[in-house]
UniProtKB/TrEMBL annotation:
One of its GO terms (cellular component) is perikaryon. It comes from Anabas testudineus (Climbing perch). Signal peptide: none annotated. The gene is ELAVL1. It is found in: Cell projection, Axon; Cell projection, Dendrite; Cell projection, Growth cone; Perikaryon. Transmembrane segments: none annotated. Belongs to the RRM elav family. The keyword Repeat applies. It holds the Pfam family RRM_1. Keywords: Cell projection, Repeat, RNA-binding. It comes from the Eukaryota. SMART domains: RRM. This is ELAV-like protein. GO terms for molecular function: RNA binding. CDD domains: RRM1_HuR (cd12769), RRM3_Hu (cd12377).
Length: 314
């Protein structure tokens, strides 16, 4: 149950809205249940299209509760909407976002949720689709209501082979854009050992058996040219003029720990010159982001995404 302060009892998050639904339509749908104080449809900051979710705040908690019971699961066009309390951020719900890979390409979003729903309350989920073919990439994100639920799902489903599939799936926490570079990754790599260490990682390599590749990510990251010790630099080309840093956080954040983002702007107009950079901590996550976002359509542009090489762009 949501925490009982007043905001939490009146404020709802609505997921899986049809792309064509407007903010006014969202408001009028929920006004049918009771007095709506505010309704906000969340849109892409640059391209302006709906991101498929929004927030509705009722005047009375009883109406909010009734909206959940009457409107959750309602079919609108081809979507089944999801209505739940929009929980304020707190430690119990932080970092409850999972990254799932190795899924069967035929698995749909509802089937994905079916697989995970017994472990807790799913806030939203997303199967990544190849823009060109329209087929699943076998990768998805699921955000649970609470971190403990996400942990439970990892415990039961990581390494599990879904029915009808020959491959086990990988389920792990999706690193959070604002996480500090070392905390989560170090603890995962060192299997929860509590010792902190300064200095380069290479000296420990003998004591822990994992591939030199992963030592490299943690150490200098020097394996690819032009990647600084702070992480793996990704070059994004063909951004629209209105692109800003927030868009890069939104695009790359779900794949893993992002250290920083930068949009290159025209000195005179302050508009984006069409490219930007994102630095990510972990090589696999950076590679996955490139694989998933290269060729991604943002507004009317098709992005080109690659590892930055040392020559050419500063």
């Amino acid at each position: 149950l949501p925490p009982m302060d007043d905001d939490a009892r009146t404020n709802l998050i609505v997921n899986y809205l049809p792309q064509t639904m407007s903010q006014d339509e969202l408001r009028s749908l929920f006004s049918s249940v009771g007095d709506v104080e505010s309704a906000k449809l969340i849109r892409d900051k640059v391209a302006g299209h709906s991101l498929g979710y929004g927030f509705v705040n009722f005047v009375n908690p009883s109406d909010a509760e009734r909206a959940i019971s009457t409107l959750n699961g309602l079919r609108l066009q081809s979507k089944t909407i999801k209505v739940s309390y929009a929980r304020p951020s707190s430690d119990t719900i932080k970092d409850a976002n999972l990254y799932i890979s190795g899924l069967p390409r035929t698995l749909s979003q509802p089937e994905l949720e079916d697989m995970f729903t017994r472990y807790g309350h799913i806030i939203n989920s997303r199967v990544l689709v190849d823009q060109a073919s329209g087929l699943s990439r076998g990768v998805a994100f699921i955000r649970f209501d609470k971190r403990a639920e996400a942990e439970d799902a990892i415990k039961h489903l990581n390494g599990h082979t879904p029915p009808g599939s020959s491959e086990p799936i990988t389920v792990k926490f999706a690193a959070n854009p604002n996480q500090t570079r070392n905390s989560q990754m170090m603890s995962q790599m060192y299997h929860g050992q509590s010792r902190r260490f300064g200095g380069p990682v290479h000296h420990q390599a003998q004591r822990f058996r994992f591939s030199p590749m992963s030592v490299d990510h943690l150490g200098s990251g020097g394996g690819a040219s032009g990647n600084s010790p702070s992480g793996w630099c990704i070059f994004i080309y063909n951004l629209g003029q209105e692109a800003d840093e927030a868009v890069l956080w939104q695009l790359f954040g779900p794949f893993g720990a992002v250290v920083n983002v930068k949009v290159i702007r025209d000195f005179n107009t302050n508009k984006c010159k069409g490219f930007g950079f994102v630095t990510m901590t972990n090589y696999e996550e950076a590679a996955m982001a490139i694989h998933s976002l290269n060729g991604y359509r943002l507004g009317d542009k098709v992005l080109q995404v690659s590892f930055k090489t040392s020559k050419g762009h500063k």
